[in-house]
Specification:
By secondary structure, the protein is α+β, with helices and mostly antiparallel strands. Helix content is 54%, strand content 24%. The protein folds into 2 domains: 2-7 and 97-169, Pleckstrin-homology domain (PH domain)/Phosphotyrosine-binding domain (PTB) (PH-domain like), CATH 2.30.29.30; 11-91, no CATH class. The chain is elongated.
Amino acid sequence: MQLEYRVEADDYLAFNLHVMRTSPVFRAQAMRQRVVAAVTSTVIAMAVVGVVTGEWAGGAITGIVAGAGAWWTLPRVHHRHVERTLRRLAAGDGLGPSGDVRLTIDDVGLHETLAGTSTTIGWAGVTRVDETDHHAFVFSGLHAAIVVPRRAGRVPELLDSISSHVRDEGAPAAH
């Protein structure tokens, strides 16, 4: 099977945002940041109110409110910050090479030709396949994937072919 399509900066933006939301590494980092921010906000607010007013009970209540506020708002603030940063990168030098892609699937694996480069991923190297409304991502590592926009057409056929080959090879990918 062969599929030809064009990959653009927005496709890499979508991939990076998807990785940010689904990667265990990034999710763990976000949770650590969330906990640290909530605990720090609680302690600082409690200490400031307690020292300034002498009302330690009021400081404790203020600290709990501040910590809860940090706990609930930090994920949204963090996501907006990362998305803005990725958009700036995509608008500048980009997040990956844009251009026409030829993706070929055979008994060996996936062969991607893009921007004068060629990459082959054997079936044992396919670690997972993720789908979104607008893309399919064929992962060959924790944060590396072939990006296939759904506008390329034939994506369900492509994913079925990948699943069939991965199943035959006994590789760990799931579709």
